[in-house]
Amino acid sequence: MTQDRTPVVAFHRLIPGIPAPTRADRSGLGGLPTRAYRFCDAVTTATGYGWHITSPLNFSLMWDGHEVLWTCDELENEWMPLGLGAVQYPHFRARFDEEVPEDIRGYSPPFLTGLPEAGVVQMWTGLFVRTAPGWSVLTRSPVNLPRPAAYEQFEGIVEFDKWFGPLFTNIRITRTDTPIEINQLRPILQVIPIPQFAYADPILNSATVSDAFTQWGEAEWDAYRESVVIPANAEEHQAGRYAADVRRARRNAGCPFAAMAAAREANEAG
Q1: At the top level of its lineage, which domain of life is listed (predicted)?
Q2: How far is CA 220 from the centre of its chain?
């Protein structure tokens, strides 16, 4: 949260009853290798960064090389062409028109939209998003979960502090004549908060490159000794040394949520 306790990211469900976003799981839903989960803070931090978003509906897609077809239980598994049109979430349009102000009736967001690019479909999650001023969200496939074999997703950064709109993902089907099942057993998206200054041009243009043998001084070589030489000469190699050092630094930094993080880490270690 920001200092005035405004949420950095606020999710709004338009489709009643769909799964709520959940904090991303540092274990990769139990799929990370045990050693990575116990000792690799880099992997677990990335895996748990943000929120998992689940599809609002169990459905299937298929691309025959020319057009995209879709089906779901409501269609009794009959394959319907999507083309360049759009389809609504089952029964949502009528409920939407019943609930919204009169001038908004007829403007319910589509659930699936066929895009001009071959084999590409846009899927709405059933959510709208608002971020705190100066914050955006990165939308991407779930971090460190096995990738589906027959489709991939585009990543995007959206400044939802300026635009209150639907949270969607663009799916590119990579195999023809192969049914693709998208269900609620696996998250479809990971949403990651990002401060907008982090991708501003002055930041991205400020990176430097140095040549170690000609430009490093004692400070760099001392750091090299600390991170590489000393651990390599230790009588017993300490697994997860980086993870332990990083977590200790976080606790000592005075973060207001340090106690909560320490309790979580102790629980994971146990």
Answers
A1: Bacteria
A2: 35
Which positions ≥6 away from 219 have C-beta within 8 Å? none
- Report phi then psi at 156, rounded to 5: -155, 155
Do 92 and 15 meet the contact criterion of CB atoms below 8 Å apart? yes
| The model's pTM | 0.84
Angle between helices 241-252 and 258-269 (to 10 degrees): 150
How big is the chain, counted in residues?
Answer: 270
* Residue whose structure tokens are 């401060």: 195
Whole-angstrom distance, CA of residue 227 vs CA of residue 246: 13
- The letter for the amino acid at 61 is L
Over residues 175-234, the pLDDT tens digits come to 999 999 999 999 999 999 999 999 999 999 999 999 999 999 999 999 999 999 998 888
Among positive and negative, which fits the CA dihedral 222, 226, 232, 236? positive
Q: How far is CA 122 from CA 55, 63, 175, 198, 208, in A?
A: 12, 14, 17, 27, 38
Residue bearing tokens 């340090």: 258
